[in-house]
Amino acid sequence: MAKIGTDTAAAAMLLAKGELVAIPTETVYGLAANAFDPEAVTRIFQTKNRPSFNPLIVHSDTWEKLEPFLREIPPTARKLGEIFWPGPLTILLPRNEIIPDLVTAGNDRVAVRIPRHPLTLELLAQLDFPLAAPSANPFGYISPTTSAHVQEQLGDKIPYILEGGAAAVGVESTIVGYEADGSWKLYRPGGVEAEALEGVLGPLSRFEGHTNAPTASGQLKSHYAPRTKVVFGPLKVNLQKGLSPKKTGVLAFRQKRADIPAHQQIVLSASGDMGEAARNLFSALRQLDAMGLDLIVAEALPEKGLGRAINDRLERAAAE
Ligand code: TXA
Ligand code: MG
Questions:
Q1: pLDDT tens profile 217-266
Q2: DSSP SS3 for 264
Q3: Would you state the pLDDT for residue 211?
Q4: Which of 13, 38, 70, 138 is most buried by its number of CB atoms within 10 A?
Q5: Contact by Cβ (8 Å): 227, 289
Q6: CA-CA distance, 291 to 249, in Å (whole number)?
Q7: In whole angstroms, how large is the CA radius of gyration of the chain?
Q8: CA 134 to mean position of chain CA atoms
Q9: Which of 57, 99, 154, 184 to mutate to test ligand 1, by most ligand atoms within 8 A of the CB atom?
Q10: What whole-number distance in Å separates Cα of residue 293 and Cα of residue 250?
Q11: 8 Å CB contact between 94 and 111
Q12: Alpha carbon of 159 to ligand 2 centroid (Å)
Protein backbone atom coordinates (compact mmCIF):
# COMPACT_ATOMS: atom_id res chain seq x y z
CA MET A 1 0.00 0.00 0.00
CA ALA A 2 1.11 3.55 -0.67
CA LYS A 3 1.94 5.86 2.18
CA ILE A 4 -0.61 8.69 2.42
CA GLY A 5 0.49 12.04 3.83
CA THR A 6 0.91 15.76 3.33
CA ASP A 7 4.72 15.86 3.22
CA THR A 8 5.51 17.77 0.03
CA ALA A 9 9.27 17.59 0.67
CA ALA A 10 9.09 13.78 0.78
CA ALA A 11 7.00 13.80 -2.40
CA ALA A 12 9.52 16.10 -4.10
CA MET A 13 12.37 13.77 -3.14
CA LEU A 14 10.61 10.72 -4.56
CA LEU A 15 9.78 12.54 -7.80
CA ALA A 16 13.40 13.72 -8.16
CA LYS A 17 14.48 10.06 -7.90
CA GLY A 18 12.17 9.11 -10.78
CA GLU A 19 9.39 7.63 -8.63
CA LEU A 20 5.65 8.19 -9.13
CA VAL A 21 3.57 10.18 -6.66
CA ALA A 22 -0.21 10.67 -6.71
CA ILE A 23 -1.07 14.35 -6.34
CA PRO A 24 -4.31 16.12 -5.50
CA THR A 25 -5.64 18.72 -7.89
CA GLU A 26 -8.89 20.65 -7.84
CA THR A 27 -10.21 18.43 -10.66
CA VAL A 28 -9.12 14.84 -9.94
CA TYR A 29 -6.03 13.18 -8.44
CA GLY A 30 -3.11 12.86 -10.85
CA LEU A 31 -0.40 10.20 -11.17
CA ALA A 32 2.72 12.35 -11.42
CA ALA A 33 6.28 11.88 -12.65
CA ASN A 34 9.16 14.13 -13.72
CA ALA A 35 8.13 15.10 -17.26
CA PHE A 36 11.78 15.32 -18.34
CA ASP A 37 12.55 11.75 -17.24
CA PRO A 38 11.43 9.28 -19.95
CA GLU A 39 11.86 6.27 -17.64
CA ALA A 40 9.63 7.79 -14.99
CA VAL A 41 7.07 8.74 -17.64
CA THR A 42 7.16 5.18 -18.99
CA ARG A 43 6.25 3.99 -15.51
CA ILE A 44 3.10 6.15 -15.61
CA PHE A 45 1.91 4.33 -18.73
CA GLN A 46 2.72 0.93 -17.20
CA THR A 47 1.07 1.69 -13.87
CA LYS A 48 -2.16 2.88 -15.50
CA ASN A 49 -2.07 0.29 -18.23
CA ARG A 50 -2.42 3.23 -20.56
CA PRO A 51 -1.65 2.94 -24.29
CA SER A 52 1.39 5.01 -25.19
CA PHE A 53 -0.42 6.81 -28.04
CA ASN A 54 -2.25 8.73 -25.33
CA PRO A 55 -0.36 11.94 -24.43
CA LEU A 56 -0.02 13.44 -20.93
CA ILE A 57 -0.71 16.87 -19.44
CA VAL A 58 2.35 18.72 -18.10
CA HIS A 59 1.79 20.60 -14.82
CA SER A 60 3.79 23.41 -13.26
CA ASP A 61 3.25 26.34 -10.92
CA THR A 62 4.41 29.23 -13.13
CA TRP A 63 4.49 30.30 -16.80
CA GLU A 64 8.26 30.77 -16.43
CA LYS A 65 8.75 27.06 -15.83
CA LEU A 66 6.49 26.13 -18.77
CA GLU A 67 8.11 28.52 -21.25
CA PRO A 68 11.31 26.53 -21.98
CA PHE A 69 9.41 23.78 -23.74
CA LEU A 70 6.86 25.92 -25.59
CA ARG A 71 7.79 26.95 -29.13
CA GLU A 72 5.19 29.65 -29.33
CA ILE A 73 3.00 31.35 -26.75
CA PRO A 74 0.27 33.32 -28.50
CA PRO A 75 -0.92 36.39 -26.51
CA THR A 76 -4.37 34.81 -26.19
CA ALA A 77 -2.83 31.85 -24.35
CA ARG A 78 -1.23 34.24 -21.86
CA LYS A 79 -4.60 35.84 -21.39
CA LEU A 80 -6.25 32.47 -20.77
CA GLY A 81 -3.58 31.74 -18.18
CA GLU A 82 -4.11 35.08 -16.50
CA ILE A 83 -7.82 34.50 -16.20
CA PHE A 84 -8.11 30.77 -15.51
CA TRP A 85 -4.80 29.70 -13.89
CA PRO A 86 -4.25 28.29 -11.42
CA GLY A 87 -7.34 26.34 -12.35
CA PRO A 88 -9.07 23.56 -14.30
CA LEU A 89 -7.92 24.57 -17.78
CA THR A 90 -5.43 22.72 -19.98
CA ILE A 91 -3.97 24.48 -23.03
CA LEU A 92 -2.50 22.67 -26.06
CA LEU A 93 0.44 24.72 -27.39
CA PRO A 94 3.25 24.17 -29.91
CA ARG A 95 6.14 22.43 -28.19
CA ASN A 96 9.85 22.21 -28.73
CA GLU A 97 12.23 19.29 -28.48
CA ILE A 98 13.18 19.23 -24.79
CA ILE A 99 9.91 17.69 -23.84
CA PRO A 100 10.17 13.90 -24.38
CA ASP A 101 8.12 12.48 -27.29
CA LEU A 102 6.64 10.03 -24.85
CA VAL A 103 4.87 12.85 -23.01
CA THR A 104 3.17 14.21 -26.13
CA ALA A 105 2.89 10.84 -27.92
CA GLY A 106 4.77 12.45 -30.78
CA ASN A 107 2.25 15.28 -31.18
CA ASP A 108 3.74 18.65 -32.05
CA ARG A 109 1.77 20.26 -29.25
CA VAL A 110 2.09 19.78 -25.52
CA ALA A 111 -0.77 20.05 -23.01
CA VAL A 112 0.04 22.44 -20.13
CA ARG A 113 -1.80 23.34 -16.96
CA ILE A 114 -1.24 25.18 -13.66
CA PRO A 115 -3.53 23.38 -11.19
CA ARG A 116 -5.17 25.11 -8.23
CA HIS A 117 -4.62 22.79 -5.28
CA PRO A 118 -2.51 24.53 -2.55
CA LEU A 119 -0.56 21.39 -1.58
CA THR A 120 0.30 20.55 -5.17
CA LEU A 121 1.31 24.15 -5.83
CA GLU A 122 3.57 23.90 -2.77
CA LEU A 123 5.07 20.71 -4.21
CA LEU A 124 5.54 22.18 -7.70
CA ALA A 125 7.28 25.23 -6.22
CA GLN A 126 9.97 22.88 -4.82
CA LEU A 127 10.65 21.24 -8.19
CA ASP A 128 12.92 22.38 -11.00
CA PHE A 129 11.09 20.10 -13.42
CA PRO A 130 7.41 19.98 -14.46
CA LEU A 131 5.14 17.03 -13.67
CA ALA A 132 3.54 14.85 -16.32
CA ALA A 133 0.31 13.60 -14.77
CA PRO A 134 -2.73 11.80 -16.13
CA SER A 135 -5.65 11.04 -13.82
CA ALA A 136 -4.58 8.45 -11.22
CA ASN A 137 -6.91 5.63 -12.31
CA PRO A 138 -6.43 2.45 -14.32
CA PHE A 139 -6.91 3.31 -18.00
CA GLY A 140 -10.57 3.63 -19.00
CA TYR A 141 -11.95 3.56 -15.43
CA ILE A 142 -13.53 6.38 -13.42
CA SER A 143 -11.12 9.15 -12.34
CA PRO A 144 -10.24 9.41 -8.61
CA THR A 145 -11.48 12.36 -6.58
CA THR A 146 -10.14 11.21 -3.18
CA SER A 147 -6.88 9.66 -1.93
CA ALA A 148 -8.91 6.53 -0.99
CA HIS A 149 -9.91 6.07 -4.66
CA VAL A 150 -6.22 6.16 -5.61
CA GLN A 151 -5.17 3.84 -2.79
CA GLU A 152 -7.85 1.31 -3.77
CA GLN A 153 -6.70 0.98 -7.34
CA LEU A 154 -3.05 1.98 -7.59
CA GLY A 155 -1.91 1.85 -3.96
CA ASP A 156 0.16 -1.30 -4.40
CA LYS A 157 2.05 0.21 -7.34
CA ILE A 158 3.20 3.61 -6.02
CA PRO A 159 5.11 4.72 -2.91
CA TYR A 160 3.24 7.89 -1.94
CA ILE A 161 -0.13 9.64 -2.22
CA LEU A 162 -0.23 13.31 -1.30
CA GLU A 163 -3.40 13.78 0.77
CA GLY A 164 -5.36 16.77 -0.46
CA GLY A 165 -8.92 15.93 0.55
CA ALA A 166 -11.84 15.55 -1.83
CA ALA A 167 -11.40 17.32 -5.17
CA ALA A 168 -13.09 20.74 -5.17
CA VAL A 169 -14.21 20.61 -8.82
CA GLY A 170 -14.56 16.87 -9.38
CA VAL A 171 -14.36 16.65 -13.18
CA GLU A 172 -11.17 16.90 -15.25
CA SER A 173 -9.85 20.12 -16.72
CA THR A 174 -11.31 21.69 -19.82
CA ILE A 175 -8.89 21.19 -22.74
CA VAL A 176 -8.58 23.92 -25.35
CA GLY A 177 -6.17 23.76 -28.29
CA TYR A 178 -4.32 26.44 -30.28
CA GLU A 179 -4.59 25.32 -33.91
CA ALA A 180 -2.10 25.73 -36.76
CA ASP A 181 -4.33 28.38 -38.36
CA GLY A 182 -4.39 30.45 -35.18
CA SER A 183 -7.92 29.45 -34.16
CA TRP A 184 -8.93 27.69 -30.92
CA LYS A 185 -10.81 24.42 -30.49
CA LEU A 186 -12.45 22.73 -27.52
CA TYR A 187 -11.03 19.21 -26.99
CA ARG A 188 -12.73 18.28 -23.74
CA PRO A 189 -15.43 20.05 -21.73
CA GLY A 190 -14.36 20.22 -18.07
CA GLY A 191 -14.01 22.32 -14.95
CA VAL A 192 -13.86 25.67 -16.75
CA GLU A 193 -17.24 26.31 -18.35
CA ALA A 194 -17.06 26.52 -22.15
CA GLU A 195 -19.20 29.66 -21.93
CA ALA A 196 -16.47 31.36 -19.86
CA LEU A 197 -13.83 30.40 -22.42
CA GLU A 198 -16.01 31.67 -25.24
CA GLY A 199 -16.17 34.98 -23.42
CA VAL A 200 -12.44 35.26 -24.14
CA LEU A 201 -12.02 33.31 -27.39
CA GLY A 202 -15.34 33.84 -29.13
CA PRO A 203 -17.51 30.91 -30.33
CA LEU A 204 -15.57 27.66 -29.90
CA SER A 205 -16.03 24.63 -32.10
CA ARG A 206 -15.53 21.20 -30.66
CA PHE A 207 -12.70 19.02 -31.94
CA GLU A 208 -14.61 16.06 -33.33
CA GLY A 209 -12.73 12.85 -33.64
CA HIS A 210 -13.48 10.04 -31.35
CA THR A 211 -11.60 7.34 -33.15
CA ASN A 212 -9.38 4.54 -32.04
CA ALA A 213 -6.27 6.62 -32.64
CA PRO A 214 -7.26 9.68 -30.65
CA THR A 215 -4.98 12.55 -29.89
CA ALA A 216 -6.80 12.90 -26.60
CA SER A 217 -8.20 10.17 -24.38
CA GLY A 218 -10.86 12.73 -23.69
CA GLN A 219 -11.64 11.80 -27.30
CA LEU A 220 -11.97 8.08 -26.65
CA LYS A 221 -15.54 7.04 -27.07
CA SER A 222 -15.54 4.61 -24.19
CA HIS A 223 -13.85 6.07 -21.12
CA TYR A 224 -14.48 7.08 -17.50
CA ALA A 225 -16.48 3.85 -17.29
CA PRO A 226 -17.61 1.75 -14.35
CA ARG A 227 -17.64 -2.04 -14.81
CA THR A 228 -21.43 -2.08 -14.61
CA LYS A 229 -23.21 -1.30 -17.87
CA VAL A 230 -24.42 2.31 -18.06
CA VAL A 231 -27.17 3.83 -20.16
CA PHE A 232 -27.35 7.57 -20.41
CA GLY A 233 -30.07 10.03 -21.35
CA PRO A 234 -33.47 11.15 -20.16
CA LEU A 235 -34.25 8.97 -17.09
CA LYS A 236 -37.92 8.48 -17.72
CA VAL A 237 -37.50 7.36 -21.31
CA ASN A 238 -34.68 4.94 -20.53
CA LEU A 239 -36.50 3.40 -17.58
CA GLN A 240 -39.66 2.94 -19.64
CA LYS A 241 -37.83 1.41 -22.57
CA GLY A 242 -37.78 -1.88 -20.72
CA LEU A 243 -34.15 -1.30 -19.94
CA SER A 244 -34.91 -2.39 -16.38
CA PRO A 245 -33.59 -5.88 -15.67
CA LYS A 246 -33.64 -7.24 -12.12
CA LYS A 247 -31.35 -4.79 -10.49
CA THR A 248 -31.27 -1.29 -11.93
CA GLY A 249 -29.47 1.60 -10.26
CA VAL A 250 -30.15 5.25 -10.95
CA LEU A 251 -27.79 8.19 -11.04
CA ALA A 252 -30.18 11.13 -10.87
CA PHE A 253 -29.52 14.85 -11.09
CA ARG A 254 -32.03 16.25 -8.55
CA GLN A 255 -34.38 13.57 -7.31
CA LYS A 256 -34.88 9.85 -6.92
CA ARG A 257 -37.53 7.95 -8.85
CA ALA A 258 -40.44 6.28 -7.09
CA ASP A 259 -40.27 3.14 -9.25
CA ILE A 260 -36.74 2.06 -8.22
CA PRO A 261 -35.58 1.03 -4.71
CA ALA A 262 -34.24 4.15 -3.00
CA HIS A 263 -30.97 2.51 -1.90
CA GLN A 264 -30.10 1.81 -5.52
CA GLN A 265 -30.24 5.49 -6.41
CA ILE A 266 -27.87 8.42 -5.93
CA VAL A 267 -28.82 12.07 -6.37
CA LEU A 268 -26.02 14.35 -7.58
CA SER A 269 -27.51 17.60 -6.27
CA ALA A 270 -30.95 17.95 -4.72
CA SER A 271 -30.82 21.72 -5.20
CA GLY A 272 -29.81 21.39 -8.85
CA ASP A 273 -26.36 22.91 -8.28
CA MET A 274 -24.08 21.81 -11.16
CA GLY A 275 -20.95 22.43 -9.09
CA GLU A 276 -22.18 20.06 -6.40
CA ALA A 277 -23.20 17.55 -9.07
CA ALA A 278 -19.70 17.64 -10.58
CA ARG A 279 -18.06 17.18 -7.17
CA ASN A 280 -20.23 14.12 -6.48
CA LEU A 281 -20.15 12.56 -9.95
CA PHE A 282 -17.19 10.15 -9.86
CA SER A 283 -17.73 9.04 -6.25
CA ALA A 284 -21.37 8.34 -7.06
CA LEU A 285 -20.41 6.23 -10.08
CA ARG A 286 -17.93 4.27 -7.94
CA GLN A 287 -20.58 3.66 -5.27
CA LEU A 288 -23.12 2.47 -7.82
CA ASP A 289 -20.46 0.27 -9.41
CA ALA A 290 -19.90 -1.43 -6.04
CA MET A 291 -23.60 -2.32 -5.58
CA GLY A 292 -23.63 -5.35 -7.85
CA LEU A 293 -26.24 -3.86 -10.17
CA ASP A 294 -27.10 -5.15 -13.64
CA LEU A 295 -27.50 -1.69 -15.04
CA ILE A 296 -26.92 1.95 -14.10
CA VAL A 297 -29.31 4.43 -15.70
CA ALA A 298 -27.73 7.88 -15.65
CA GLU A 299 -29.74 11.03 -16.13
CA ALA A 300 -28.61 13.70 -18.57
CA LEU A 301 -28.12 17.16 -17.06
CA PRO A 302 -29.00 20.42 -18.81
CA GLU A 303 -26.39 20.89 -21.55
CA LYS A 304 -24.85 24.09 -20.20
CA GLY A 305 -22.05 25.12 -17.84
CA LEU A 306 -20.60 22.17 -15.92
CA GLY A 307 -23.54 20.11 -17.16
CA ARG A 308 -21.67 19.77 -20.46
CA ALA A 309 -18.66 18.19 -18.75
CA ILE A 310 -20.84 15.89 -16.65
CA ASN A 311 -22.88 14.77 -19.69
CA ASP A 312 -19.67 14.18 -21.64
CA ARG A 313 -18.32 11.86 -18.92
CA LEU A 314 -21.63 10.00 -18.59
CA GLU A 315 -21.89 9.58 -22.34
CA ARG A 316 -18.44 8.01 -22.41
CA ALA A 317 -19.23 5.87 -19.38
CA ALA A 318 -22.19 4.55 -21.38
CA ALA A 319 -20.30 3.95 -24.64
CA GLU A 320 -19.70 0.30 -25.60
O1 TXA B 1 -7.91 17.66 -14.76
C2 TXA B 1 -7.08 17.07 -15.43
O3 TXA B 1 -6.81 17.40 -16.59
C4 TXA B 1 -6.36 15.89 -14.76
C5 TXA B 1 -5.46 16.44 -13.66
C6 TXA B 1 -4.60 15.35 -13.05
O7 TXA B 1 -4.68 17.48 -14.16
N8 TXA B 1 -5.61 15.17 -15.73
C9 TXA B 1 -6.18 14.42 -16.71
O10 TXA B 1 -5.27 13.73 -17.47
O11 TXA B 1 -7.38 14.34 -16.87
P12 TXA B 1 -5.68 12.58 -18.49
O13 TXA B 1 -4.40 12.06 -19.02
O14 TXA B 1 -6.56 11.63 -17.81
O15 TXA B 1 -6.41 13.36 -19.61
C16 TXA B 1 -5.68 14.34 -20.32
C17 TXA B 1 -6.14 14.47 -21.72
C18 TXA B 1 -6.04 13.17 -22.45
O19 TXA B 1 -7.26 12.99 -23.12
C20 TXA B 1 -4.89 13.37 -23.38
O21 TXA B 1 -5.00 12.58 -24.53
C22 TXA B 1 -4.99 14.87 -23.67
O23 TXA B 1 -5.29 15.38 -22.40
N24 TXA B 1 -3.72 15.39 -24.15
C25 TXA B 1 -2.58 15.47 -23.48
N26 TXA B 1 -1.59 15.94 -24.25
C27 TXA B 1 -2.13 16.17 -25.46
C28 TXA B 1 -1.61 16.63 -26.70
N29 TXA B 1 -0.32 16.96 -26.85
N30 TXA B 1 -2.45 16.73 -27.75
C31 TXA B 1 -3.75 16.40 -27.61
N32 TXA B 1 -4.31 15.94 -26.47
C33 TXA B 1 -3.51 15.83 -25.41
MG1 MG C 1 -7.92 10.25 -17.42
A1: 556 677 788 999 999 988 877 777 655 556 899 999 999 999 899 999 99
A2: helix
A3: 40
A4: 70
A5: yes
A6: 8
A7: 19
A8: 7
A9: 57
A10: 10
A11: no
A12: 20
